[in-house]
Every structure is written in structure tokens, then in C-alpha cells.
Design goal:
With 231 residues, the protein is α/β, with parallel strands linked by helices. Helix content is 29%, strand content 21%. The structure holds 6-phosphogluconic acid. Residues 36-41, 68, 80, 134-136, 140-143 line the site of 6-phosphogluconic acid (6PG).
């Protein structure tokens, strides 16, 4: 596990974008990435869209998925797809984008798409080259919120998850799929995240959902700004 701290959210976005470009550029063949929602990841996507970095990647080799999505249309203000499209995807005409239709609720269909397009790693679980994850102040990642059923899923790879405190349903990757990845990168900024970050890095309780992310044989990196790191 690596912990990398940047001065502020913009410096964090720049650093992660550069490392992402480097990882993709030094790989061969198809490269699979799962995007996440959130304001911090949005800064990363916007930085990636800037020509000096964007033009270093052969996006025709890249398959872009979503690790979670809200049950709304793709043009809705709450849509992770809409955010990513505005910040990045519209600038990547060659990339293969797999929108998650959470409104349709067919998690099995998206799971099959992942099985069809993402190389199988050890065993039978698809191994993403990179899964990006933001973190909420409650320690949720993707749409694995504290106490929700999807946090207890041990077999399915993509499920619909009821989130009572938000009075909504979301589609989300589960831990079996996340933990099979070759790389899992947390992208976390802001003072409101610091208590959870500090707790997860230095204590064993409580069981925030982010604790469930432990790649079996992949790399885990905490990309933080100084406020989230408490430094
Ligand atoms: C979502 C995201 C969610 C997000 C975190 C962090 O659909 O809301 O997938 O997991 O990454 O809530 O969001 P911020 O960076 O905006 O705090």
C-alpha cells in the first residue's frame, strides 16, 4: 500500500492524472479502467482531458467503465456518467465507454459486460487494470454505503443497492470485483475526510466500507491532499 500526499486538490488531480497516463502508456493491449463519481475525481478527469496529458494516451486501447451510478437518466445532474462526460469523456472520441444504466436496474447485464470485456485474473473474477474510487465522509466507496446490503455481497460482481438514508437505489461494483483489480486508487481530498482517513490508516475500528477494499494481488494507493491526510 502507498500513501501519496499532494498540496491541494488541484495538485492531487495533476499527480494522479500523470501517473494514470504513465501506467496506461507503459502497458500493452487493452487497458480497463473503472471511473467513480464525486467532486474530487471530477478534478482528475478535467486534468486528464487537458491536451498535454490526454494526447499521450492511445484511448482506442482503453475501456472505460463505471464503478457505480445513480438511478437517474444520463443527462441528470446527479449522474456520474454526465459528470464524467462533461469533464473527460466528450474529449475522448476513441475510448470505449460502458455507461452504467442504473435507472434500468439491470445489474446482471452490466456484470456480463464486465465479464465480456475485462480480462479474467486469478480464478473467475475479471481483473480491472485500474479502479478509481472516491470516498465519502462516511467512509463509503463506490455506492457501498455503511450498513447497506451490497457491502455483504460475496458472490455477485455488480448489484443494485438500496441506500435508505438517501432514499434511493444505486448500481455498484462489489468487493469481489474491486479486490480482484490490478490497481485500486483512492482519490480523496478535503478536511471532512481526514477523520476517516486517519482512522482507517491508523486504527482497526470502526468498519467503514473503505476498509473492505484490500486487493488480493493488486496495488492499493491512497492519493490524498494535505487536508484529507491531516498533514
Ligand atoms: C458517488 C461516488 C462516491 C464518491 C464519494 C466522494 O456516486 O457519489 O461514486 O463514491 O466518489 O462520495 O465524493 P467527493 O469526492 O465529492 O467527496
Amino acid at each position: 500500500m502507498r500513501v501519496e500526499v499532494s498540496r491541494d486538490p488541484e495538485a492531487l488531480a495533476d499527480r494522479v492524472a500523470r501517473e494514470l497516463v504513465d501506467v496506461v502508456s507503459t502497458s500493452e493491449g487493452r487497458f480497463t479502467i473503472a471511473l467513480t463519481g464525486g467532486s474530487t475525481p471530477r478534478l482528475l478527469y478535467a486534468r486528464l482531458a487537458e491536451p498535454d496529458l490526454r494526447d499521450q494516451v492511445d484511448w482506442a486501447r482503453v475501456e472505460l467503465f463505471f464503478g457505480d451510478e445513480r438511478a437517474v437518466p444520463p443527462d441528470h445532474a446527479d449522474s456520474n456518467f454526465r459528470m464524467a462526460h462533461q469533464a473527460l469523456l466528450r474529449h475522448l472520441p476513441d475510448a470505449h465507454v460502458h455507461r452504467m444504466d442504473a435507472e434500468g436496474g439491470a445489474a446482471e447485464d452490466y456484470e456480463q459486460r464486465v465479464l465480456d470485456r475485462v480480462a479474467i485474473g486469478q480464478g473467475t473474477v475479471p481483473r480491472f487494470d485500474l479502479i478509481l474510487l472516491g470516498m465519502g465522509a462516511d467512509g463509503h466507496i463506490a455506492s457501498l454505503f455503511p450498513g447497506t446490503a451490497a457491502t455483504r455481497e460475496t458472490r455477485r460482481l455488480v448489484v443494485m443497492n438500496d441506500v435508505p438514508h438517501l432514499q434511493t437505489r444505486r448500481m455498484t461494483f462489489t468487493y469481489p470485483l474491486i479486490n480482484a483489480a490490478a490497481r485500486v486508487w483512492f482519490v480523496i481530498a478535503g478536511a471532512e475526510k481526514q477523520p476517516v482517513v486517519k482512522n482507517v490508516l491508523h486504527a482497526r475500528e470502526p468498519a467503514y466500507p473503505i476498509r473492505g477494499v484490500a486487493p488480493h494481488s493488486g496495488e492499493l494507493v491512497w492519493w490524498l491532499d494535505e487536508k484529507a491526510a491531516g498533514s
